[in-house]
Amino acid sequence: MIEKLKNLLVPKLLAIFFIYYHLFGLKFVMFTILERLDLPLTDYHYPVLNIFTIIFTIVLVIYLRRRRPEMFSIKTLQPLDYLLTLLAFGMIYAYFNKLLFVGGDINNDLLFFRHSPQAFLVALQPFIIGPILEELVYRGTLMTSFFEQSKFYLDCLLSAVMFSVAHLFSYGVSLEVFKNYAFLGLILAILFRKTRSIYPSILVHMAWNIYLSWHLIAFVFFAQ
Question: Using an 8 Å Cβ cutoff, are 30 and 52 in contact?
Fold first, then answer.
């Protein structure tokens, strides 16, 4: 009885902790270290943030590989799964159409560091390690801890809502922001549920973020 209760509660508590740490813990730890070591924010913000993001991502991968190793298996992906991945990107594109927006802070920082090696470190957050971490937290961890395979897709709905709420902290509380990110989160959640793999949602998430900012990426990294 105790063991069953433990197996039921521990994943849920850890999922809540991981979400909390993603929303508040990462930046709290980063700013605390920068303050204690008296390091300039301009020079060390993204290097330190990336280090702790990567460490957090590794911890999540280790945890999820022990709980749900099947989500990391590429061999289980079927031809239909690849079609669903393309369909998911197409649905996101159709919904947002010409909305070219990722986030003001990241875009401004990319422009600020345009002629600096730090531009690559800034780009890692929205285009590489950010999508990986968010998929591990809001799809891999959350959806396998609450309402897993719910008949009414409550796991997908919860994932979409929490994913959207997380972005309200970055882009401001508004119904439009919540609606847009909830839609994006819902598509990624359904993709994760249908393919049973974390890779398709990571791929679509990365591709969408890169697509939204490809003009900026070209200007920062390739323009003379």
Answer: yes
The token pair at 176 is: 């439009």
Q: What is the pLDDT of residues 74-98, one digit of tens each?
A: 988 999 999 999 999 999 998 887 5
Which of 60, 28, 217, 200 shows the shortest CA–CA distance to 124?
Answer: 217
pTM for the complete prediction? Answer: 0.93
Distance from chain centroid for Cα 30:
18
Domain locations in the chain?
2-222
Contact 45, 35 (CB under 8 A): no
Check if the beta carbon of residue 160 is closer than 8 Å to that of residue 113: no
| Interior/surface letters 13-27, b for 16+ CB within 10 angstroms, e for the rest | eebeebbebbbeebe
Question: Can you spell out the DSSP letters for 51-101?
Answer: HHHHHHHHHHHHHHHHH-GGGG-STT--HHHHHHHHHHHHHHHHHHTT---
Transcribe 180-212 into DSSP letters. Answer: HHHHHHHHHHHHHHHH--HHHHHHHHHHHHHHH
Helix axes 198-212, 79-96, angle to 10 degrees: 30
pLDDT tens track for 190-201: 999 999 999 999
